[in-house]
Amino acid sequence: MNKIPLIIKREYLTRVKKKSFIIMTIVGPILMAALFIAPVWLGMMDDNEKKTISVYDESGKYKNAFEDTETLTFRFLDEPDIKKREQDFLESGNYAMLTISDTIKNEFVLYSEKAPDLSVKEQITGRMERFVEAENFKKLGINKAEIDSAKVDIYLETYTLTEEGVEKSSAELGIAIGFISAFVIYIFIFMYGVQVMKGVIEEKINRVVEVLISSVKPFQLMAGKIIGIALVALTQFVLWAVLTGVIVSFVYFAFGESMMPQGQDLSQIQNMSTQQMEELVGNNQFSDLIVGLINFNWFAIISTFLVFFAGGYLLYSSLFAAIGAAVDNETDTQQFMLPVTVPLILAIVSAQGIVKNPDGTLAFWLSIIPFTSPIIMPLRVAMGRYEVWELLLSAGLLTGAFIATVWLAAKIYKVGILMYGKKVSYKELWKWLRYK
Q1: Could you give the CA distance from residue 375 to residue 368 in angstroms, rounded to a whole number?
Q2: Which residue, among 139, 181, 162, 219, has the nearest Cα to 405 in the 3D structure?
Q3: Helices vs. strands in the chain: H and E counts, helices first
Q4: When you count CB atoms within 10 A of the terminal residue's CB, does the N or C end of the chain come out lower?
Q5: Phi and psi (nearest 5°) for 101?
């Protein structure tokens, strides 16, 4: 009788009932929703505190460069003694003190009791740059207004042209979705692959495995554990996606209108068609994003994601299961973890370069090699930079590698699962693989 379904049920129910699973299922969506909401919320919280900047201009040329704004007030100082100025500043309670001490090199120094806000530093720097630039134009006899009138902003629209027709596209959207897919697969392979390894070690330490092995074959135990934890990962992934969507939607409908520019009705914008949205915002990047989301090939990316997520997880989980069977505790896993994790880390690091050259040699081979293809191929598919034969070849090699890896891991698992008190080396693992 095939005992694998029973092992899968045991692994699944045991893990979904754990407090850690329940807590992470609740906390995970909150953290992910915060990633979407926090940037908008922080953007709305402008620092409206009035700050006073003391200015000592030794050259006397920069007085017109500093005009008061809603958040910055400039107070010019006449005290030539730097020690006296420093003392006066500390007693004044002003936010910062700017000194322009060298009339030839235009050296600027900003003093403050604490590190100044980046926005304040940028405002002061921008004002001085514009002022000095305007003064230089005057010296050279150049009319800045004429130069400004000659400047143009060019926005490059992108379309995909295929035999089916022409569609508006967004390269940035494909890169973003590809990166998210690659990162999610990377995280889940690592997180749940290590869970497989820890589960094997835990059962080995508790000698529970001896009882299980008396009823089921080692391969059935390993396969049931891997598939059971895969279902746990899939359950948590779906719950995270649904709960994150619910939280973001709740915040959007509860506070969305307060985030809109004054005078705009959120419900009207929600009901706009694509064409109306384009008319409202113009042919800019925002309209490209909306149209790009509509035209995006979601079927290709979702199906590719599921295939390579499952293949990558099964490939690496079998290796993690073999590592767990070969050692007696987590400390001994280090020597075996490195060769397994390096391809994953290499893939996620290389992804940053591959987005710049998705058709290059590196992108091709990393999307074909089974140990890196679960990360790279979904990225290339999201960018629309792949051939169908490459996708089929990559999926086929991943499937073949998974079958071969499971076979090898099962041989290690079969011997190692009941091996205690012996430090295992690569030489010893090679012997286990040759046992019949």
Answers
A1: 11
A2: 219
A3: 17, 6
A4: C
A5: -100, -20
